């Protein structure tokens, strides 16, 4: 083989090696870029999709526009204070404030609370809204005349007991996505995932009183018969 051929072969080998090295470097850069992007995305979105209520796993699922409208529709004749239990990004609280309610949201996720406060400020209703980082099981709802909850089945029975004990007879409860297990709704609006169930406290409180009285009478009757 001539000297020229040897030099040409060496150049070709060096070229292939150099090209392979460049490809490796590009691959590493792309991998690092994608990895960094995924980490950044998780850092931003993670706090928003993390469980919002620690005792029961309740992930943040934003209310649809139809759900918000249905909630406002069943509260048209109402006034006073409103609390959204597990307020998420604050859309129910903000929408209710626009309708004249003094609105409050309780949410465990601090990122969502800060974001809700920012949204309320941007939309000009921050003076009529309040957002708190708090566990719903550690808060009393006795002062609120309207209660909204986007719950999950696992929490509804325990929340039913809590609200029944704390709310005034004039209060109204609006359940979204899932109804309460033993209460009979006074009204139902919407369909599918946009369904809302309306419960007036005077109804479920009077039902409880009647049930308790009946139970006591039956127990007294059984005691007399035993004697």
TrEMBL record:
Membrane-crossing residue ranges in chain numbering: 26-45
GO biological process, one term: regulation of mitochondrial ATP synthesis coupled proton transport
Membrane topology: Single-pass membrane protein
Key word Aminoacyl-tRNA synthetase present: no
SUPFAM superfamilies: S-adenosyl-L-methionine-dependent methyltransferases
Keywords attached to this entry: Membrane, Methyltransferase, Mitochondrion, S-adenosyl-L-methionine, Transferase, Transmembrane, Transmembrane helix
Gene3D superfamilies: Vaccinia Virus protein VP39
Subcellular location: Mitochondrion membrane
A GO term from the CC aspect: mitochondrial membrane
Protein family according to the UniProt entry: Belongs to the ANT/ATPSC lysine N-methyltransferase family.
Name of the protein in its database record: ATP synthase subunit C lysine N-methyltransferase
Organism the protein comes from: Tachysurus vachellii
